[in-house]
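Reading a protein record of the kind used here takes only a little practice. The integers have meaning only within a learned vocabulary of local backbone shapes. With that in mind, consider the following protein and its fold in token form:
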Amino acid sequence: MVGCFINGSQYRNVLRFIPEAIGELADRILQVGLIFVAEDRGRLVGMLAGYAVDEPIGRTKMLEELAWWVDPEYRKGSVGYKMLRCWEEWARQAGLEAVKMIAPAESPGVGGFLERRGYRQIETTYILRLDHGLSHGPATRRSSRGVPPGTSRQGGQGGAGSGAGDPGAANAAGAGRGDQSSQHAAG
């Protein structure tokens, strides 16, 4: 399912699909968030995964999507709507104040669908793949120490205050609710 999502979207240009990493990712999500799945006669036809966070500026408690996928054969039906409705209800019952969703650039229908449900577009995301030796972007001259001219190397991993990829840091910030749940939306 994840391979289909990555290979069928613009993410294929910036992400590698590593099957072994998917189980690890699911485990991390379930430590601080939840995964909803949609099935039709035992066949997995959709998933919606994310986690609760306290956004850092206004401390709004928010359910933030990490991944939402519906099998292409089911996209014209009600699977996506049902999953989103369950997602929003879970957030309400958990006492969260907002839900943040992602609309891929190549899927303008998703943005329109979300706007009809009351969502507002607030940002556009850009990703630069930093493959050394490939020409995906402008060339950057490197100094002899491997650091681009005009920058400095900071100590630590990920910079000060970074909790990215650390479920414990997310839990400490109140993102996790302790639920290790996988929810189902009928297809």
